Amino acid sequence: MARIRPRITVVPALATAAALLMCSCSAGAGKGAEGAKGGGATAAKSGQRLTVALGTAADSRGPAPAVSGARSGGTVKVANLNDYSHLDPQKVYAGEGYSTSLLWGRQLTQYQVVDGRPKLVGDLATDTGKSSDGGRTWTYRLKDGVAWEDGKPITSAHIKYGIERTFAPGFELGPTYWPEWLTDSEDRSAAVKKYGGPKDGDLKAIETPDDKTIVFRFPKPQSDVPYMAAQSSSSPVREDKDTGTGYDVRPFATGPYKIVEHKQNQSLTLERNPHWKAETDPIRHQYPERFEFTFGKKTLNTAQEVFNARGSGPDTVTTKDEVPPELYAEAARDPKKKELIVAGSRGAYTNDLYIKNSRVTDPEVRKAIHYLFPREQARQVLGGPRLGDFATTLSSPAVVGWKKYDLYPVKPTGDIEKAKEHLARAKTKVTTLTYAYESDAPEKDRLAQVLVDAFAKAGVKLVVKPLEKATFHNEVFRGPAPYDMWLSTNSVDWPTPATLLPDSFHSKLDALANSIRYANPEVDKELERIAGIGDAQQKADALIALERTVMKDVPVVPFLYTSVSQFRGANIGGAAIHPIYGSIAAASLYLKKS
Amino acid sequence: MAEEHSGRPSGPVSRGPFVTAVRAFRRDRTGMAALAVVLLCAVLALAAPLIAALYGKDATEHYGQNTPGLLSPEGLPVLPGGGISADHWFGIEPGLGRDVLAQLLYGMRTSLLVALASVAVIAVVGIVLGVTVGYLSGIADRAFTFVCNVLLAFPTLLLLLALGPVVETRFVDPGENEPVWMQFTVLILVFAAFGWVPLAMVLRTAVRSLREREFIEAARALGASRRHIVFRELLPNVWAPVLVHITLAVPGIVTAEAALSFLGVGIDEPVPDWGRMISRGSEVFYDDPTYMVFPGVAILVFVLAFNLLGDAVRDALDPRTAR
């Protein structure tokens, strides 16, 4: 179900700046009488919270629908604070990595984005896959004319080799779905015992009857194969070009650009790939001649250059970094600068207050926390509406089958009276709760104070524990986690609910997956039933229905459907947040003049 | 250096060196102004709860968040000048919306408490060690110099940065907040542990030159005990450098504490702290520069007053530097 949320925008007017104190008075953030509503045309289309549609074979034919006003040529400069941690397609496992690697890498399927609406279409394959045998067999046919950067055609064996690599040692970092699904294993370590990667020879579960056909045979029905086929780990790899760890620095290109040079943590230069044919590709464009990535410059400096059009600022864009909080309000106030902010939904990410269910066992107490939680104040202290919209559901609106529900409606500032009622109903009186957080930024300390304040109003002493990043992760996800609550940002691996409940809310999962130790036998049983469904839509509907059952127990308190605010130079066109990957989509950028 | 020949009249004009110093100090107008500011600060800090009660504001209450209309949805003060109004004279803090004036008053308490407690420990340790070692010399002196060199070479700031999380995880129960007294104690102990060295070294040199003077020789000839010589003969002659040193150490510690809080290893939320206010000010500098002004000016005035006071004390106690 598609749902369009208007972006909340505040346009503070320039209040009269009375010289109060040494000329350094602040203008104030009061709303002017004529506050313009809504963002620019780009902002409206950028990264809306829309669910993906499945495209047909006709949609999968290239070329990609042209970006209106786009022109060819020039060099786009991309300035990111950090280099991509991986370029090896089977190791990439982050939204920005997925999004940028589309420039040089192609997969079996991919998301075509037109006017901000995502549609899953065939990329190297002619369609999103044909299933048979109740979802146990999936067949893909490759398009004609798809080629590597040296002109050799891409064959089904290359796709198979790429997927075989996900079993090999050193590829633990990537998604584990191929190994688990193809061998019907609980987790990756069990899967690699059955097949250990290309060194073990041929993987029987994938058949390549000819150069154009690839057939996956799963022991159990798998409904989400079309989405998994869009993940970077479903990219082809040529065995003769597989340089092992070197492939992580410079992968061999199949997309519109090829990597000319990659100095790790310094720069990455891309040039047009002459063997890429636009008519085979329904997703990517090839407008600029070159992409020049630089890494290491502080985001604050980059953003100042971009917003003030200094140096190469107008031709610069980021594909990873957000508008620094120091500059945000100023940029949002100035209409010229505001245009350069590219904001949108951060894919299917949500931010929730996690409650450790094995410590806070009484649902009444968890309900009290739900009513207490000061969403408005918490978001305000973190930076305001640009962080996202208030959530009422566990899954993001970007997920297939999402329906809005609000089981325990509460106003965003919290409802202390309701919370007190539920606390009074608790079996044992709660006087103290603990809240743990990563103390890597001062706004998190302030957020903790907001929570302390809210809990104190209901008569609960909130103990706050600032932890080092490593300690936090060790204790919360691997250790005993002697804390009652923490905030957590999560996303499904692809925009269906298939990786949400089954991967985090089954009682048999370890603390890494089910960190809140949620355990409900009824939910476990239903999850096991749903695992056998082979149809993606049916499975999504069953999971979305189950989500309400889970949320009745209030295992977590939904906080935000998160958003991102990135920036682009004035000369950069086509910049929009990718609705699935949640960062500026590099493959549709162009230079307005060069 | 003023010297006192313990008990004996020191010249035809029978005026104690203390009285002389006080007179000299009272003639120094800058010094008097500095003293007035310092005393004002001390009174404000001591009476902070009273002033806050009269002013009607709490230092930790989130006014901006709990009263609609004070902060924008992004957490910036709606009114110009950082939210200055009849209710909030110095404006409100961006984000949490606490009252800046109340925060400043209580922040001064934090600064003064850390500085004065550290200086007290520094004075005691520095005097005892400096005077004793200066008098003893020999092996004790060599050991002392070595320890001093080690301590001077110690990366204090890095130690504090590393110590914070260790103390928190090692000594605090996971179900409890880190007690405020523990944060203060750690800071005071670290400042004191490294702060006594310069004082002790100055005293050691001073005492070494005094040791050979006639009045010490005389005391020794009369059979005075070591204890008597150190505490009765030597100590009264070194109080001037001690006084100068500690008045100059206070502003140093105040800025050091602010720097630590700026870096996030000083005193934690919700205890008001100037360093943390300045750090917050730097985050919102583009949008709300006013917020930086108040803690910045406060710390500037406070440190300047203490420095000028220290200078004035030195001038008054040391007639040779009379201008």
UniProtKB/TrEMBL annotation, chain A:
<dbReference type="InterPro" id="IPR030678">
    <property type="entry name" value="Peptide/Ni-bd"/>
</dbReference>
<dbReference type="GO" id="GO:1904680">
    <property type="term" value="F:peptide transmembrane transporter activity"/>
</dbReference>
<dbReference type="GO" id="GO:0042597">
    <property type="term" value="C:periplasmic space"/>
</dbReference>
<dbReference type="GO" id="GO:0043190">
    <property type="term" value="C:ATP-binding cassette (ABC) transporter complex"/>
</dbReference>
<keyword id="KW-0732">Signal</keyword>
<feature type="signal peptide">
    <location>
        <begin position="1"/>
        <end position="29"/>
    </location>
</feature>
<dbReference type="InterPro" id="IPR000914">
    <property type="entry name" value="SBP_5_dom"/>
</dbReference>
<feature type="region of interest" description="Disordered">
    <location>
        <begin position="225"/>
        <end position="244"/>
    </location>
</feature>
<dbReference type="InterPro" id="IPR039424">
    <property type="entry name" value="SBP_5"/>
</dbReference>
<protein>
    <submittedName>
        <fullName>Peptide/nickel transport system substrate-binding protein</fullName>
    </submittedName>
</protein>
<feature type="domain" description="Solute-binding protein family 5">
    <location>
        <begin position="119"/>
        <end position="507"/>
    </location>
</feature>
<dbReference type="GO" id="GO:0015833">
    <property type="term" value="P:peptide transport"/>
</dbReference>
<dbReference type="Pfam" id="PF00496">
    <property type="entry name" value="SBP_bac_5"/>
</dbReference>
